[in-house]
Design brief:
Rossmann fold; 14 strands; about 55% helix
Length: about 725
């Protein structure tokens, strides 16, 4: 060819993706909602999930039919917080202790205790009962060790007993399940009875221990009380303290109120007061006795006669001498009258004086006794201090003794108080099995199946590293997304591609629009379309992109550069006798090899791959491909090159030197990300410009992320069947 060859410069080849940043990108902000992503994952693995669920449900149905029927019997008991106490005697525990929040939880735990199970096993002799083991589908192997048999039976009981408290009530249901309805009812009733008996035994045991302790303390305080009272009595005897009466204060301490000495002192003081009063009265009587004596009639007559005699004596002395016999006689008469008067007065006063003297003497004697008793009471008061110490010790010991004695009596009465647990409804023999339940087993199987399916899907998602949705392109490959092509297996792709209004045409029109933002002159004039591996839709993308460009009025040539597995002639329905391999091998008349197809698109022409060469890489390593592209661009607006896959081949790096850049096609969920990155690394090593990624075969549910149209398409053509199958 005589025309000048156009060879893109290094600057053109190494254009950065700065211009491509302006076009619409798939970012995490545009990613579908998390729920929708999970839904898409479920749809991707729907057959795996369905298979696991079917197997799980089948196992549930099979388990239902082969399982042994189980019968449950239920007994209902009432547990009250306040213990019934008809004797009104206080027990060991305070009334507040039964009001604690953990009371009922403690009772529920006791209902499931090992000791209670062993009580039931011993009462019903379940350790040596073959029917009991048969009811639980266990082998009966009796042991000579009774303890071992009871423990083995208790473990079986605990595994099949169910304690179900009724919310917001004091009622508890005790349910036992086994293959024997009679045995289930018998064990359930025995469980309730033994629980009540165990509760009573614990209470009685607690009171017994307390009573034994109190009795031991009573013996100690009995001896202490005897010793204390003996010390007080001995000290009182040695000190001469004779207590006639005592008093007790509010604290129960006794004190001396009256002793013999204080009583004698009190009596003697009273006698002294009486004696003093009598002496005073006698003294007054003696004083009055003299005045009374002068008023005596006899004394008055004697005094009158003396006065007369004394008057006569005085008259005689006026005439006679004192020695005159008549005067002497009168004088003697006066003296005799004086003596008579004195005798008469003395007789009256002497009796009163004697009584007075006797009263004075008696008062003195009593006063002396009082003084002596005062000395005795002072000594006794000093001794009473020590005596009161002994008495207080005895009183304190007596109070402790009385308290212990009263508590012992109360505990003895409280141990026979009524129980706070009562059976409301006893268990009856079940008439129908409670398990297995088909619905319950199916629900359990469904839950297990869903869990297994979830684990399986998580594992498969970890293993499957392919791109699943448009947002993964930017996140995993760090390349712009040119377009997302939905998948559809029910329609013919060629018919959809030839219909400008079809969803495929619109999807590839979106790719063409995004390509227009990758360069400063719009859609690249020459572009190579490749992929990592066969079957990803690169040939379909090449054909569709060329078709869309031709529809926009641009003269477009589609070159099939996949000389190992050509497919473009199959799309266009043309011959592949001569083509690119001939031109690269040395022929120059490319115009003779360009063909048209009856597709209804005037400006679209094709250059097929031609015969398969022995080494396509050797043909592409020369400059003839670059010269050919340059020559073709003088006649065509756009040249689209359908390149072979990158994996294991050197063709694409060689082809990328002849074009402006590459379009990388990725089939959703088909190739691992590490393989995609390896392919892109080969392009970067060849300094190829990558315009972006076209994500094909996108599942309809994933197309809802904003890149698809809500419905998909499917296609299959003879030239490239492998690329159109879903992997």
């Amino acid at each position: 060819m005589s025309k000048p060859i156009f060879s893109p410069s290094i600057t053109d080849v190494n254009l950065t993706s700065a211009s491509s940043e302006a076009m619409p990108q798939a970012s995490d902000d545009n990613a579908p909602p998390l729920v929708l992503q999970y839904w898409n994952i479920a749809l991707r693995w729907k057959y795996v999930i369905a298979g696991i669920l079917i197997v799980a449900l089948a196992v549930g149905v099979l388990a239902t039919f082969i399982a042994t029927p189980q019968y449950s019997s239920e007994v209902q008991v009432e547990i009250t917080r306040d213990q019934k106490n008809p004797t009104h005697a206080e027990g060991i525990e305070s009334a507040q202790s039964s009001q604690e929040a953990e009371f009922y939880q403690t009772q529920y735990t006791l209902l499931e205790s090992r000791s209670l199970a062993e009580r039931v096993a011993r009462q019903l002799n379940l350790g040596g009962n073959k029917e009991f083991y048969d009811a639980h589908s266990l082998d009966f192997a009796p042991s000579d060790d009774v303890r071992a048999r009871v423990q083995a039976a208790s473990k079986i009981l605990l595994a099949n007993i169910e304690i179900s408290p009724i919310a917001r009530s004091r009622l508890v249901n005790i349910r036992y399940t086994s293959a024997s309805p009679e045995l289930s009812a018998k064990i359930a009733n025995a469980w309730a009875d033994n629980f009540i008996q165990a509760s009573m035994d614990r209470r009685f045991g607690a009171t017994q221990d307390a009573r034994a302790f109190l009795e031991r303390r009573l013996l100690e305080y009995t001896k202490k009380l005897e010793d204390a009272e003996r010390r007080a009595a001995l000290f009182a005897a040695n000190s001469g303290i004779v207590v006639l009466s005592s008093s007790t204060d509010a604290d129960g301490n006794s004190g001396i109120q009256k002793t013999l000495v204080s009583n004698d002192l009190e009596n003697m003081s009273n006698e002294l007061a009486k004696a003093t009063a009598d002496r005073i009265a006698k003294q007054a009587a003696a004083t009055e006795a003299r005045a009374l004596a002068s008023q005596n009639q006899t004394v008055g007559l004697l005094r009158q006669r003396r006065a007369e005699a004394n008057a006569e004596y005085s008259e005689l002395l006026a005439h006679y001498e004192p020695g005159y016999p008549a005067a002497q006689a009168l004088k003697q008469k006066v003296a005799a009258l004086d003596a008579a008067i004195a005798s008469e007065e003395g007789r009256s006063v002497r009796s009163v004086r004697g009584e007075y003297d006797e009263a004075v003497k008696r008062e003195a004697n009593i006063r002396a006794n009082v003084e002596k008793l005062k000395d005795d009471i002072e000594l006794q008061n000093r001794d009473s201090i020590q005596y009161n110490i002994y008495r207080r010790d005895a009183d304190a010991t007596r109070q402790l003794y009385d308290s212990l004695l009263q508590r012992t009596k109360e505990i003895g009465v409280a141990s026979v108080a009524a129980n706070n647990i009562a059976v409301v409804d006893r268990a009856d023999v079940a008439t129908s099995p409670t398990s297995p339940s088909l619905i319950t087993n199916l629900m359990i199987a469904l839950i297990i199946g869903l869990a297994l399916a979830l684990l399986a899907v998580m594992a498969l998602e970890q293993i499957d590293e392919g791109l699943r949705e448009p947002a993964d392109v930017r996140r995993l490959l760090e390349l712009p997304l040119l377009g997302a092509i939905p998948d559809q297996l029910n329609d013919e792709p060629l018919d959809l591609l030839l219909d400008p209004k079809s969803n495929i045409s619109e999807a590839y029109l979106s790719v063409r629009t995004n390509l227009a933002f990758t360069t400063d002159h719009g859609v690249p004039r020459s572009v190579v379309v490749t992929s990592t591996s066969p079957g990803e839709g690169k040939s379909t993308t090449s054909f569709s992109l060329a078709l869309v460009l031709a529809r926009t009025g641009k003269r477009t040539l589609l070159i099939d550069a996949d000389m190992r597995s050509p497919s473009v002639h199959g799309f266009a329905g043309i011959e592949n006798e001569k083509g690119l391999s001939n031109l690269l091998a040395g022929e120059d008349n490319w115009q003779a090899m360009v063909q048209r197809a009856d597709l209804g698109v005037e400006r679209l022409e094709f250059l097929t791959a031609g015969p398969n060469p022995p080494s396509a890489a050797e043909l592409l390593s020369s400059d003839r491909m670059s010269l050919l592209i340059r020559d073709l661009l003088e006649q065509y607006d756009h040249v689209v090159v359908d390149a072979p896959p990158l994996l294991g081949l050197a063709d694409v790096p060689l082809l990328s030197r002849a074009v402006e850049g590459s379009v990388f096609v990725v089939a959703a969920g088909q190739v691992a990300v590490r393989a995609l990155r390896g392919s892109l690394s080969r392009l970067h090593q060849a300094h190829a410009r990558i315009f972006g990624v076209v994500l094909t075969k996108l599942a309809p549910q994933n197309s809802l992320s904003g890149y698809g149209y809500g419905y998909g398409y499917g296609y299959r053509y003879g030239g490239e069947p492998a690329e159109q199958t879903n992997s």
